[in-house]
Design a protein that fits this description.
Chain lengths: 136, 306
């Protein structure tokens, strides 16, 4: 019975998150302004509790990227950190009030890992959406 | 009593699952009706793409980004490097349609970068045909085509429209449990973009182009990771085999990386990433990579041709 209850709870959360993802995507897209071209991809993950979504990317030298990271219907619900492949920290938005977007001007091409997790203050579960734009 | 409670939970669970399986689709115009093939796939989908906790997310460069590089280094527009198949209806399987939607999408971006808006508009019609076959809302394309026609001379606007179309298409596919289609579109676009770079290196000696090819070493790993995640029915086994063969060639590309402290400027919401990287590949290795990429492209554009 407990398992069934848990399954039911998960289904409810998932159902809610599916609808939430669409709203979150609209909120997030507003951060990719017309100065940037979208990379054409939509990245999302359902996060529960302290789960972390890992995002792997190559950022090319000579390009400035805008990364937008959102959860829920308002800014500041998602914490994200960018590392290089040697796990050196490049940036973390929790140093800047969970800024929902940040620009990265690349001098060389490097491979990065971006980790995203919900701010515990914002809730225990939610749809995390990340969008990327670029300009040269 | 216990069995009654279980029955109530079972009913609620069923309702909840129905909600999940219905979630995500757009409502609205009559053009949003999905093809029958896509509806049946949704019914068969055993999971929600949202339930991907623990999986990684992989990024591939936009074909537009690569096309911009070609223009920057002085490459001229060359129509002969586009997919010569002007009739998209020859692609009859879901896989061929998805991969060639990626190819046509890259061709479209290439034309836009070089102000070939009439050619781009024709390619957009091919994209609409394939995208609709794959279940992407025709309304997305119709809306874009209207905006496109009203801005034929405005390159910047057209680039924004197309990049937005690509994002919305990707979102639409993922919301409708078609992450595998999305991955194949990205694959087609990546191969076509690399084909453009390869063709230009034949006529233009340029280090930036050579470096861009070598820098695909990690991108290829991301592509393989993405396709492996979506290979739940082993339908990508052959494709992955080809890419792992290409990966072996890429392993010969020498790379170096030096971490440098980044410069973060909060007032500009900007971080300047100063770390340095380098790639090194000789002519023979460049040719080997580009030959394999061309073989992949030939497979894509001749796939499922009737």
């Amino acid at each position: 019975m407990k398992k069934l209850s848990l399954l039911f709870l998960i289904c409810i959360i998932t159902s809610s998150a599916v609808a939430q993802c669409e709203i979150t995507a609209d909120v997030c897209q507003s951060h990719i302004t017309d100065r940037y071209l979208s990379d054409g991809q939509h990245y999302r993950a359902l996060l529960l509790n302290d789960q972390v979504a890992e995002f792997n990317a190559t950022l090319y030298g000579g390009t400035t990227y805008r990364l937008a990271a959102c959860s829920g219907t308002q800014d500041g619900n998602l914490i994200f950190r960018m590392f290089d492949k040697e796990r050196n920290l490049i940036y973390k938005n929790d140093d800047f009030q969970n800024a929902p977007h940040w620009d990265f001007q690349m001098e060389s091409t490097i491979d990065v890992i971006i980790e995203a997790e919900l701010d515990p203050i914002a809730g225990a579960s939610g749809c995390a959406v990340m969008l990327m734009g670029f300009r040269r | 009593m216990k069995s009654t409670q279980q029955l109530i939970f079972a009913i609620l669970l069923g309702a909840s699952v129905s909600l999940v399986s219905c979630g995500g689709s757009d409502s609205g115009t009559s053009e949003n009706q999905e093809p029958e093939g896509n509806k049946s796939k949704k019914k068969e989908a055993p999971h929600s793409s949202l339930l991907k906790v623990g999986d990684k997310i992989f990024n591939l460069p936009s074909p537009l980004e690569t096309a911009m590089l070609l223009e920057e280094v002085g490459g001229h527009f060359n129509e002969s490097i586009l997919n010569p198949s002007v009739d998209a209806s020859q692609y009859s399987t879901k896989e061929a349609q998805a991969m060639n939607l990626g190819v046509y999408g890259a061709d479209l971006g290439y034309c836009l970068i070089y102000n070939q808006s009439q050619k781009a508009f024709r390619l957009l019609a091919n994209c609409k045909k394939l995208g609709t076959e794959l279940g992407i809302s025709p309304a997305l394309y119709s809306d874009l085509m209207k905006r496109f026609e009203g801005n034929m001379e405005n390159k910047d606007s057209l680039l924004i429209f197309v990049s937005e179309l690509n994002r919305l298409s990707d979102q639409y596919l993922k919301e409708n449990e078609n992450g595998d289609i999305s991955a194949l579109i990205l694959y087609g676009g990546w191969v076509e973009s690399l084909h453009f770079v390869g063709e230009l290196t034949k006529s233009l000696e340029n280090d930036e182009l050579r470096i861009r090819v070598g820098e695909q070493k990690n991108t290829l790993q991301n592509l393989i990771g993405l396709l492996e995640q979506e290979n739940r029915e082993n339908s990508f086994d052959d494709l992955l085999s080809d890419l792992r063969d290409l990966e072996k060639t890429f392993e010969k590309v020498e790379t170096s990386y030096t971490y440098v402290e980044p410069d973060t400027r909060p007032e500009e919401q900007l971080t300047i990433v100063r770390s340095k990287s380098a790639v090194n590949l000789d002519d023979a290795l460049l040719d080997e990579i580009l030959d394999k990429v061309n073989a992949l492209r030939t497979k894509i554009i001749t796939s499922a041709a009737t």
